[in-house]
Write a structure and sequence with these properties.
Length: about 110
């Protein structure tokens, strides 16, 4: 990625974050959703719509608390794949947001058969 694109992404992220967090939002679920919306937009811009739709489109933000962002994937496989192949990119994008968050992709809980 060239420096111009990186600078544009960083500027775009910072503008969105400032407008989002100007409002004093105390709800950790809303914070998670807003943070994920920004992160998801950036992932789509970098990876393209095909990859984004395959791996990130159906992620559900769970909570953002104590600087930990929990994101739920649809399957255990998706959680493992994203953590293995995209975690460094996600961490870099969070760093660009000037946030000291840690992001975890988790799988849904397994349901017990009734």
């Amino acid at each position: 990625m060239n420096h111009f694109v990186e600078d544009e992404l960083k500027l775009n992220i910072q503008k969105k974050l400032k407008s989002t967090f100007k409002k004093t939002i105390d709800n950790p679920v809303i914070k998670a959703q807003l943070t994920w919306d920004i992160l998801s937009d950036q992932l789509q811009a970098i990876l393209g719509p095909e990859v984004h739709n395959q791996w990130f489109k159906n992620i559900t933000p769970v909570v953002l608390k104590n600087n930990i962002l929990l994101l739920q994937t649809e399957t255990q496989f998706a959680s493992r794949w994203i953590n293995t192949h995209y975690q460094q990119l996600v961490d870099a994008l969070i760093t660009i947001q000037d946030r000291k968050y840690t992001c975890f992709f988790i799988a849904p809980k397994k349901r017990k058969n009734s």
